[in-house]
Amino acid sequence: xxxxxxxxxxxxxxxxxxxxxxxxxxxxxxxxxxxxxxxxxxxxxxxxxxxxxxxxxxxxxxxxxxxxxxxxxxxxxxxxxxxxxxxxxxxxxxxxxxxxxxxxxxxxxxxxxxxxxxxxxxxxxxxxxxxxxxxxxxxxxxxxxxxxxxxxxxxxxxxxxxxxxxxxxxxxxxxxxxxxxxxxxxxxxxxxxxxxxxxxxxxxxxxxxxxxxxxxxxxxxxxxxxxxxxxxxxxxxxxxxxxxxxxxxxxxxxxxxxxxxxxxxxxxxxxxxxxxxxxxxxxxxxxxxxxxxxxxxxxxxxxxxxxxxxxxxxxxxxxxxxxxxxxxxxxxxxxxxxxxxxxxxxxxxxxxxxxxxxxxxxxxxxxxxxxxxxxxxxxxxxxxxxxxxxxxxxxxxxxxxxxxxxxxxxxxxxxxxxxxxxxxxxxxxxxxxxxxxxxxxxxxxxxxxxxxxxxxxxxxxxxxxxxxxxxxxxxxxxxxxxxxxxxxxxxxxxxx
Length: 496
Prior knowledge:
By secondary structure, this protein is mainly alpha-helical. Helix content is 83%, strand content 0%.
């Protein structure tokens, strides 16, 4: 993996860690301010609105990132053209979906069996244009490989939403409007980031030159948009079915806490999708198949190497982790969270490989697999939730995630070729299994589990070192992060 990609992954991951740390501070604060019942309502409104944002906030901008990734260092005159055409399409979608969501708020509340949610959904409709404006620039900088700028914007957004969401919720709590205040904060934070993003644009004075067919954006965006819609429903449908089937705000709040904390590993590796899409797009457009394969192979191996032990440790110590985030009121969510961690690992691998295929232009396959996964999750969740309540929802989602991962890996093998040595995979699994076995001898106290986790993870790395799966190559990557940064043109020459 090149120095450029290693540094990019490091800084984007660091910004994602800060961003998601702010998210968990917000969730922890809201859980304590609102209590399980109101927190469940908060989770439903925010999750659904965010899912709608994906419909218009990522599909077309992701297409922009792909095409910018192909030309950003060769045809500078096309950058403002692609940006302008994307903005026009996005503006049309933003306005239409925002109005539609506002008008459908009573119907959505009726489906969820709680008409009192209507006004909350109407307020949250303003989140859609605000998030979409921020997402537009997020993918704009992705396509330009401006990952350091992206990291700064993500960090700014982290601070902004802490101030706006928690600040407004706390300020309006005495008036009984804490929930409404938090939702309004979700509007202000991304809009503030959008204003900041316009100042960083290095090509805002670039002279337009050339021609770009805007219909290419739509041809790429429609299956990408359907993929994102299906994927968002895939990862959230269990929460809505818990609400719809069990009709218990407390249980909904508990399950929302379990999936929110449980997705920490997924968010840690989300940065990989940001980098891998334009990188694969560039290598496949230049028909450099060896580079594409090597890039994906390195990414997959390193992801599995760290994803598996993190998921295992979070499963083992789910109770103290939940207690730190939400307090003792949420301890009943420990079992569902433990079960969900397997599903989170499978789903993370699926998502990263889906973006690798999207970067290569194979957009329809991830879309179809997402719809298969969604249908599977709906069927399994319906029966499992009725019989086993929250653990049933977690089991259904984990089974579905495994199916989706298996399908995407099978297709990736067919399209890219052999990506992961079986011997490497078996060594990682063996070291993880030994680490899990040893964890049964370490009690999970309120804070002591952090020390135990660090010790167990160190043992895991030692086992990989003994098995010759972790060594000089990984240490060299770490050293690269500490070396003096090269000029961009030199970094690009280092691409695998």
